[in-house]
Design a protein that fits this description.
The chain is an all-alpha fold. About 75% of the residues lie in helices and about 0% in strands. The protein has one domain (about 35-225).
Amino acid sequence: MPRHEAAGAAVKRRSDSPGEDTRPGSALPGERWLLFLCAAILVVFVWSVIGCHDLFTWSLEVSPGVIGIAALAVTYRRFRFTNLVYTLIALHAIILFIGGHYTYAEMPLFNHLRDSFHLSRNYYDRLGHFAQGFVPAMIVREFLLRKTSLRRGKLLSFLVLCVCMAISAWYELFEFAAARITGTAADAFLGSQGDPWDTQWDMTFCFIGATCALLLLSRWHDRLLARY
């Protein structure tokens, strides 16, 4: 076998080996780490539906996470993200499932923070929208770098931010449609807590989250992508 073919076969064997590297930051997703993430998500998902605030609100809150995880499972063999991205996705799903259990306006820990620091609202929904920008930013960044001719730089960052803001806008439209169709039944899902600027704040925190992800994780992300 020619030397270059042998080297390519060796790389393929390393990349296909289950559990080769299970650390969260490894470039190639280790099977054991992914199984751990799946187990954690499943446990939180089952917990979230048991004794949840109400099934209608729960279904609306967790549906983005369920749909996203299903899409990743279907496309896993064709496109495998870095473990960094998979870990961020798992954390985001857990945030969504916890929000589905309690509703974003009644998450106990953030109620405690609100009362202890005399805040005007429960800020768990702001955390959720921060994650709505932070996590998709890394997903979109990786996809664009690996599947298009885009290079690292200002244009890439701009497009990542644009996609994240588009996701946020579509989600706000989804909330609007749910409220219009179901009326007061969607009040817990909206979680506006009486703030007339809630939509604008949601999108602002999404933008902040995406910006923070690009600033804090891009170099680490690039080192992982260099192994592909």
